[in-house]
Amino acid sequence: MTMDLLIMGALFLVMGFLVGVKKMTWLLAGYNQKRVKDQEKLARLVGGTFGIVGIALVICGVIGLTQVETLLPIALGILLLQVVYVNIKLVE
């Protein structure tokens, strides 16, 4: 087990739950409620992505993946693509 991946995965899962299920979008950095077209869609999209990344990190932590240098850039790339998508489609 790799504890750092488990901790990061747990943090992503908690953030995914808080944003996606509890709709606590104020936790998102740079979030401006007035500029977002569909706040419900934003919460589901960001919360779901955080959840998926969190699950992937926890699974890799449990199986003992030691090549963190490969996994983290992929996770960050997914999150970066999501930021671009949200800024194009959901922000006025």
Mean pLDDT over the full residue set: 89
Distance between the termini: 44 Å
**Proportion of helical residues:** over 70%
Q: What general form does the structure show?
A: elongated
Offer a concise description of the structure.
This protein is mainly α and 92 residues long. Helix content is 71%, strand content 0%.
Helix and strand arrangement:
Elements: H1 3-20, H2 39-63, H3 68-89
Helix pairs in contact: 1-2, 2-3
Describe the protein.
The protein is mainly alpha-helical and 92 residues long. 71% of the residues lie in helices and 0% in strands. The chain is built from three helices and no strands. Helix 1 runs antiparallel to helix 2 and helix 2 packs antiparallel against helix 3. 21% of the residues are buried.
Quickly list its features.
92 residues; mainly alpha; 0% strand
